[in-house]
Amino acid sequence: MGAENWSLAEGFLIVGFSDLPQLQVPLFVALLLSYLMTLLGNLLITATIYCNVHLHTPMYFFLSILSFIDICHTSNIFPQTLVHFFQEGTYFSLTECLLQAYFLIGLMCTEVLVLSVMAYDRYVAICNPLRYMAIMTKDVCMQLAVGCWAVALLVAVAYIILLSELFFCGSHTINHFFCDFTALMKISCSSTYPIEVLLYVSGSMITVVSFILIITSYTNIVSCILKIKTKGGRHKAFLTCASHLTVVVLFFGSICSTYFRPMSTYSVKQNKILSFSYIAVTPMCNPLIYSLKNAEVKKGLRKVLLF
Fold first, then answer.
1. CATH of domain 3-306
2. Where are the alpha helices (DSSP H) in the chain?
3. What are the extents of the domains in the chain?
């Protein structure tokens, strides 16, 4: 039987954390708690924005999209990981593996694009406050949101097409806790060069361009803030940007260190840890980061909780 037919028939065995038996219980508790906190935090943020009319602004519209992405991101990975956590491994058919990889790539790219749009939104709000509502209209916000999703999901299709053409003639065991596309590339016996090229090209077009847009936006924002005469005004302006900037650093730092490096430097253990940071830690922290120093969100959250 050919290599491709073998993989279609047999699928893959996801090791998960079965290679760390001494850490399985604390890891299971950590994953479960982080998933529950991610769901609770992001659902509360979404409900708060939906239920409070004064939060129906472009800034909170994009924040609700970010929360939705984080819920989908973790739900794509964690439920199956937790259900099969104490087994020796989890069986995935090739279709299931590619489907999980598709949503992983698509949601990751969408979050990158949404974070860059949020930076632009803050730039317009602080540097052009009088024209803010004229520029960031409902139609414009909707078009930006749809554009982010469309571009990201189309890029993910390109990855999946190339991944589906890989041959797996050796080991079908993936030493990871989900179907990460870099782990699939590592066990393939065919050339992964086309996917690596796509990774760096799409990385340049999406991640690097988005990062440049964010840096440009914040350079202009800082310049505008420094021109504000009152100390209170400057402090308020800085607070509106600090949360977003913190999320950007956490997310961009984790995905760049995980994916934008040569396959020859791929480390299974290192990749597991880095993957956990952007799949579990960042989505869990986002609601906390956006609510702790945001008086409007805290006020709206109290209304929701007391309702």
1. 1.20.1070.10
2. 3-10, 24-51, 58-75, 78-83, 94-127, 132-135, 138-164, 181-187, 193-202, 209-226, 231-259, 268-276, 282-292, 295-306
3. 3-306
Pairing of strands 12-14, 90-92: antiparallel
Give yes or no for a contact between 90 and 84, defined as CB atoms under 8 angstroms apart. Answer: yes
The Cα 188–Cα 181 span in angstroms is: 11
CB 90 within 8 A of CB 14: yes
Confidence of residue 187 (pLDDT cuts 50, 70, 90): confident
User: Two tokens at 204?
Assistant: 């340049």
Q: What is the pTM of this model?
A: 0.89
pLDDT in tens, 124-173: 998 998 999 999 999 999 999 999 999 999 999 999 999 988 888 777 88
* pLDDT for residue 3 is more than 60: no
Query: Which among 37, 77, 75 has a CA at the least distance from the CA of 287?
Result: 37
Average pLDDT of 7-35? 80
Tokens encoding 1: 């039987």
> Nearest Cα to 294, choosing from 252, 253, 238?
238
Q: Edge-to-edge, what's the strand order for the sheet holding 12-14?
A: 90-92, 12-14, 173-174
Residue 307 pLDDT = 61
Higher-scoring residue by pLDDT: 123, 273: 123
Question: CB neighbours (10 Å) of residue 119?
Answer: 22
Report the distance separating Cα 132 and Cα 119, nearest Å.
Answer: 14
